[in-house]
Input
Amino acid sequence: VGPVSENLVTAILVSVCAFLVMRMLLIRRDRVPSEKARALVEGRPEVHLVLAAGPLYRGPAVRGPGITWLQTPGLSRLLRGVDLAVSACGFNTAHELMSAAVPTLFVPQPKIADDQAARAARFARAEAAAVAAPDALAASLPPLLDDAAARARLAEGARALGVTSAARDLA
Output
């Protein structure tokens, strides 16, 4: 991970970061086109966007001012350094984010065999995450970026769920 890990220690990583030096926002790259990603950080120098792509992603890397690209195994070990995450609500990703108590804005995707909207709604009812439709992301994100207390409430709600990582527990 290199220089990103140092920034994560002092600042806070992916998904809305309210850290000491800067804010970092983690967004799954396969969910947000590069133009939209760039627009999220435009005019917000305090936000550092970390785009994370899974192992099956084959598109281009997105880099630029205020943007870090990650496509490495073991991303979950960096999650505790993230201030805010914006992500789809697939089973593994959602549970890793909740296990790490990362304040998260879920943008559920319609899937045939995975009811992401229902999962996101359960986390939202537990006050462990916020939920937005893809077309409402631009309006839903700024309030979370600007409200450290709201992010803290989401993190506390996630901790209260008691979600653990079975893989980490078995290791």
Summary: The helical segments are 3-10, 34-41, 91-99, 116-125, 137-146, 148-161, 166-170. The first strand starts at residue 23 and ends at 28.
